[in-house]
């Protein structure tokens, strides 16, 4: 099939590249000229394992092209995929201006029947709005479909090539059939449903996963009070197939480009219909508070933070990505800096993005993990990069000025700690707290 993908961001680029890998002829369109130039030079604007090799291979096979010309790219294709951004407005609502503009430009370019697919996460009813916008611009027949994307950053290629399921929301049986054919080599779990349910499946899935994370984080906070270990609790819970073992890792809360934005958007969507989504509001608030647990623990160890030097390992919202959007590291570092601490940070690949997108005055960027820990009053681990796991605790102990280690991602085990004198705090594992009687009282910040 001939496919045009509009928007070469995370979702659009990975989807387009994967469709070309499956043998389709793909054009990825983006209005940012510098990005398209980069891709045409074989460079990749995002860090995503495996992506660069697929781009190179499929460009060489002549199946993958990049362009800024939407009209010329839409006309030869049978399927047009909209994958532009839907950033949050200050109210939390999704900003649909990029979607609406794409719909209008597609409408103006229509030269024959096409299926217009939306992969961007959009509020319920948006695909119908897209249909109206396109229909105002053309008399050429077309169908619309919502095919939400569930890929995770860091494993985006793998997730796209091996999805748990494909959801196709459409009111056209023939479009449903063609899109089923397009995806059938990827999975046998293809769900064809109505458009509004497909739109809702995406929000409900992300909100549910965010709920699991906030739930286990609150269990971790209670474990700290009652002397249980959250990793053991999660392990024991995960065997129940109704619960499932994934997304039960306690830590400093979720971040990234999807969960924070989509939970807020769903609260707004419900609110517009006069429905108060209390559960999801609590999930968001728990997530916000969880970030500050790191600060509470630092304060309980060091007292006043003014003039104290705090080392930070990890700026990305999770490992294997250079994405810092809504990274917990930002709020934690900003709070430390407001409290007068000197903050030194290291991340294997996300430092440049952090420097450009997160405005924290006075933050010192370090070249390596040792430099961030060196002579610091405490070290905080905020992203569970494999590189950090490989560093012996005895090295950390010898680099720090005071032996305080706050592990926001529970990356160390008891046996590793036994060999050191480090004072160690992790999340929801009070049995592993060393040199400390109890955690700071849970003050809301
Ligand atoms: C998420 C969804 O998983 C994906 O289906 C959707 O399409 C986009 O949003 P992503 O944001 O790439 O993907 O990352 P994910 O791996 O889901 O992690 C999100 C956040 O949750 C990270 O900050 C991560 O550290 C945190 N997390 C995840 C936890 O704190 N605990 C867990 O058990 C799992």
TrEMBL record:
* Catalytic activity, EC: 1.1.1.22
Instruction: Report keywords, A-Z.
Output: NAD, Oxidoreductase
Reactions this protein catalyses: UDP-alpha-D-glucose + 2 NAD(+) + H2O = UDP-alpha-D-glucuronate + 2 NADH + 3 H(+)
- Which pathway, metabolic or otherwise, does it act in? Nucleotide-sugar biosynthesis; UDP-alpha-D-glucuronate biosynthesis; UDP-alpha-D-glucuronate from UDP-alpha-D-glucose: step 1/1
UniProt binding sites for NAD(+):
30, 35, 86, 121, 153, 261, 325
Coiled-coil blocks: none
GO BP: polysaccharide biosynthetic process; UDP-glucuronate biosynthetic process
| Domain UDP-glucose/GDP-mannose dehydrogenase C-terminal: residue ranges | 311-414
Q: Which residues bind substrate?
A: 150-153, 202, 247-251, 255, 318
Which molecular function terms from Gene Ontology are attached?
A: NAD binding; UDP-glucose 6-dehydrogenase activity
Record family assignment: Belongs to the UDP-glucose/GDP-mannose dehydrogenase family.
Please state what the protein is called.
UDP-glucose 6-dehydrogenase
Q: Which organism is it from?
A: Paenibacillus solani
């Amino acid at each position: 099939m001939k496919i045009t993908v509009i928007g070469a961001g995370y979702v659009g680029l990975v989807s387009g590249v994967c469709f070309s890998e499956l043998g389709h002829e793909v054009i990825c369109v983006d209005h940012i000229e510098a990005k398209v130039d980069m891709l045409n030079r074989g460079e990749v604007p995002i860090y995503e394992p495996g992506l660069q090799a697929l781009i190179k291979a499929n460009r060489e096979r002549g199946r993958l092209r990049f362009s800024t010309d939407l009209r010329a790219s839409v006309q030869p294709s049978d399927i047009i995929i909209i994958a532009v951004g839907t950033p949050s407005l200050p109210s939390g609502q999704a900003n649909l201006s990029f979607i609406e503009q794409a719909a209008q430009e597609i409408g103006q370019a229509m030269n024959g029947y096409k299926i217009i697919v939306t992969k961007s996460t959009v509020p319920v009813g948006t695909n119908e709005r897209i249909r109206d916008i396109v229909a105002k611009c053309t008399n050429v027949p077309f169908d619309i479909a919502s095919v939400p994307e569930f890929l995770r950053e860091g494993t985006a290629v793998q997730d796209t090539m091996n999805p748990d399921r494909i959801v196709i929301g459409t009111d056209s049986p023939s479009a449903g059939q063609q899109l089923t054919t397009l995806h059938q080599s990827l999975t046998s779990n293809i769900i064809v449903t109505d458009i509004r349910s497909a739109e809702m499946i995406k929000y409900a899935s992300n909100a549910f996963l965010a709920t699991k994370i906030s739930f286990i984080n609150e269990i971790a906070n209670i474990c700290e009070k009652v002397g249980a270990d959250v990793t053991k609790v999660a392990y024991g819970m995960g065997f129940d197939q109704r619960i499932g073992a994934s997304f039960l890792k306690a830590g400093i809360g979720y971040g990234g480009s999807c969960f924070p934005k989509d939970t807020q958007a769903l609260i707004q969507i419900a609110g517009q219909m006069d429905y108060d989504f209390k559960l999801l509001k609590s999930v968001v608030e728990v997530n916000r508070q969880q970030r500050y647990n790191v600060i509470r623990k630092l304060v309980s160890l060091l007292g006043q933070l003014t003039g104290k030097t705090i080392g930070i390992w990890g700026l990305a919202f999770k490992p294997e990505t250079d994405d810092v959007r809504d990274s917990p590291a930002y709020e934690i570092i900003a709070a430390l800096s407001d409290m007068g601490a000197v903050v030194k940070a290291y991340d294997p690949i996300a430092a440049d993005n952090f420097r450009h997108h997160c405005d924290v005055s006075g933050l010192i960027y370090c070249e390596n993990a040792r430099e961030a820990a060196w002579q610091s009053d405490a070290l905080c681990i905020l992203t569970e990069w494999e590189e950090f796991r490989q560093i012996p605790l005895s090295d950390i102990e010898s680099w720090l000025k005071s032996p305080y280690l706050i592990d926001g991602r529970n990356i160390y085990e008891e046996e590793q700690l036994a060999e050191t004198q480090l004072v160690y705090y992790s999340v929801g594992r009070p049995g592993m707290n060393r040199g400390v009687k109890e955690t700071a009282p849970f003050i809301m910040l």
